[in-house]
């Protein structure tokens, strides 16, 4: 019997001037970037939380505390790699991930293929296991005012 489990993750970071914008493992040209202890890649953080949740392994803050200097400005791909290693050490494999990025600007659609390639290489899965969708917030709320970017992620993992 195949054991399957689902997990969901959510993350949000502030958009500020003077920071590089990292999202989905790639750098995107924009006048603002996400603020955080790490590179603040909210997409990867939401994805890691979904994966950890599915495996019953608490959350990203538990494994990679933002009070730890080791994770200052860290490339979030390292956290994603470590998360996948943890799952595989428990014989879990990714079925698929479905991710929604809520951002008023910049336009993310042109960057989605590069994000998918980057994430699939980092996670050692095929690109068709990863879906990324971008939406605006119709100018409403903190996303609409371009104060931040929010990301929702759902994953299915399985144990053969
Ligand atoms: Mg975060």
Kindly state the mean pLDDT as a whole number?
A: 96
C-alpha end-to-end distance: 7 Å
Shape descriptor reads: globular
- The number of helices is 5
CATH topology: 60s Ribosomal Protein L30, Chain: A
Number of strands: 7
Largest sheet: 5 strands, mixed
Beta-strand content: 25-35%
Helix content: 25-40%
Task: Give the CATH class.
Answer: Alpha Beta
The largest beta-sheet arranges its strands as 4-1-7-5-6
CATH superfamily: 2-C-methyl-D-erythritol 2,4-cyclodiphosphate synthase
Task: Give the topology string: H per helix, E per strand.
Answer: EEEEHHHEHEHE
Q: Which small molecules are bound?
A: magnesium ion
Low-confidence stretches: none
If classified by CATH, what would the architecture be? 2-Layer Sandwich
SS-derived structural category:
alpha+beta
For the record, the count of structural domains works out to: 1
What Rg, in angstroms, do the CA atoms define? 15 Å
Please give a structural write-up.
This protein is α+β, with helices and mostly antiparallel strands and 160 residues long. The chain has a single domain, classed as 60s Ribosomal Protein L30, Chain: A (2-Layer Sandwich), CATH 3.30.1330.50. The chain contains 5 helices and 7 strands. It has helices at 42-54, 60-63, 76-89, 112-123, 141-144; strands at residues 3-17, 21-23, 26-28, 32-34, 92-102, 130-135, 148-159. The strands form 2 sheets. It has a 5-stranded mixed beta sheet. A two-stranded antiparallel sheet has the order 2-3. Helix 1 packs parallel to helix 3. The longest helix has 14 residues, at 76-89. The radius of gyration is 15 Å and the shape is globular. The N and C termini lie close together (7 Å). 39% of the residues are buried. The mean pLDDT is 96. Magnesium ion binds next to strand 1 and helix 1.
């Amino acid at each position: 019997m195949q054991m399957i489990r689902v997990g969901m993750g959510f993350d949000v970071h502030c958009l500020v001037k003077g920071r590089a914008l990292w999202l989905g493992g790639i750098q995107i040209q924009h006048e603002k970037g996400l603020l955080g202890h790490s590179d603040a890649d909210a997409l990867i953080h939401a994805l890691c939380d979904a994966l950890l949740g599915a495996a019953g392994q608490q959350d990203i803050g538990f494994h990679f505390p933002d009070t730890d200097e080791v994770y200052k400005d860290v490339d979030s791909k390292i956290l994603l790699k470590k998360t996948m290693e943890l799952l595989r050490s428990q014989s879990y494999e990714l079925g698929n991930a479905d991710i929604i990025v809520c951002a008023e600007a910049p336009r993310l659609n042109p960057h989605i293929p590069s994000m998918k390639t980057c994430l699939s290489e980092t996670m050692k899965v095929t690109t068709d296991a990863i879906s990324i969708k971008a939406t605006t917030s119709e100018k409403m709320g903190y996303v609409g005012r371009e104060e931040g970017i929010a990301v929702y992620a759902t994953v299915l993992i399985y144990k053969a």
